[in-house]
Amino acid sequence: MMEVYAKVLLWVVPLFLILILLEIVYGHYTGKQTYTFMDTLSSLSAGMTNILKDILGLVVVVISYPYLVDTLSVVNLENSFFLYLIAFVCLDFATYWNHRLNHKINFFWNQHVIHHSSEEFNLACALRQSVSDLLGFAALFLIPAAILGVPEEIISILAPLHLFGQFWYHTQHIGKLGILEYIIVTPSQHRVHHAINPIYIDKNLAAIFCVWDRLFGTFQEELEEEPPVYGVLKPVRTWNPLIINYQHLWGMIQDAWHTRSWKEKLTLWWKPTGYRPKDVALKFPRKTINTESPLKKYHTEMSFYQKAWALFQWLSITILLLFLLAQYESFPTYQALLLGGLITVSIFGFTSLMDGHSWSYKFEKGRNFLGLLFFILPYQSAFYLSYIPSLFYFGLIYFSLSIIGLELIAQKDKTNSLHGG
Fold first, then answer.
1. What is the pLDDT of residues 175-221, one digit of tens each?
2. Helix (H, G, I), strand (E, B), or coil: what is residue 100?
3. pLDDT of residue 419
């Protein structure tokens, strides 16, 4: 099944990239650009980490849907369009409640904060999907489907389609859509969902059908007098998607460590999102956004050469991922995990350098030498030359050019500092 999903992604990923490029071009020519350079690379990189987590199966299943069907099924519906429709509605209902849980409970917010972390709103930010949702419990919300006897195979077919169907409405270029606003989730409704204005917080949680928001009291119309402000109330202040994925969890761990109350240590995880023990909040305050003041978006100064290097890194890492998807069946599990790990470390490295961390240059240098070793070690080179020689040669070229590029950037930075610019 995972091989099929990899093949589907091999088509979907380029399609999404084309649509993102079209939105960038449209924004340029209409004078309403909704993209910034590093925010876009950060969003796309977050999407890659999520793909890796999914295709490598990095989830611990707490409760599975097949188990629920076998245990709870009381109806045996015929395989028909009606069955697929019921399954899709059940899936959408489950997504609504899973999404609501992620927004409302401190611990679960950690696995969703990545999706809201961009201070822009565009098709690229739709790809900011989690790698911290490592516990598989979402099947609990599919109990209605299990009772109705919806087969696992149908859920497996519809789940990716349901997810891909949430991509299109992450845009600022489409206004309200008339009667459709009462049926499906639209760009206008989802702009509200991504906004941090007090009136918009935790609203419009539905995925496809907006009836759930209207039915369960979480609907909010986009208001002309209240332009959405995007991001999260505690800004992530980084381009690194892996740091974003665990930033909130790390904050909770720190709070649990520092609070003097044993009750708080045990319960803060299950309190409403953003909750902090009083003693810790006073001793270690964290900055939150006041949307009534102008929002100063996260920004790092980068030269033309640094931007070119970042773009080269993203393009090359994307090609590595596409190789993995295209040749998925050729990879033994351990080789897929090794390449997935290399891609993940590469994303961590280049986005950290773009954040300007003092340690990031040495990290990147080590990461690129590690990448070269990955392909030239005898056992590794034997595998790649035997099964995927094109990936072997691409890996050598990519990591060699990266090392050279790093040295050129370092020399350029030294020259600029000597000349005061």
1. 999 999 999 999 999 999 999 999 999 999 999 999 999 999 999 99
2. helix
3. 55
Structure confidence at residue 410 (pLDDT)? 82
Give the rounded distance of the alpha carbon of 344 from its chain centre.
13
Give the residue-averaged pLDDT of 231-250. 97
Quote the CA–CA distance of 42 and 58 in Å, as a whole number: 21
Q: Are 391 and 384 in contact (CB under 8 A)?
A: yes
Instruction: Locate 379 and state its tokens.
Output: 């056992």
Q: Which two tokens stand for residue 329?
A: 């069946």
Quote the strand ranges of 254-309, DSSP E: none
**262's tokens:** 């044993």
Question: Strand pairing partners for 152?
Answer: none
**pLDDT, tens only, 131-142:** 999 999 999 999
- The distance of Cα 278 from the centroid of its chain, to the nearest Å, equals 31
Q: Residue 136: phi, psi to the nearest 5?
A: -90, 95
Instruction: Give the pTM.
Output: 0.94
Cβ–Cβ under 8 Å, residues 395 and 338? no
Those residues with Cβ within 8 angstroms of residue 220's Cβ, 6 or more apart along the chain or in another chain: 192, 199, 200, 203, 204
Residue position matching structure tokens 């489950």: 94
Write the pLDDT tens digit of every residue in 234-243.
999 999 999 9
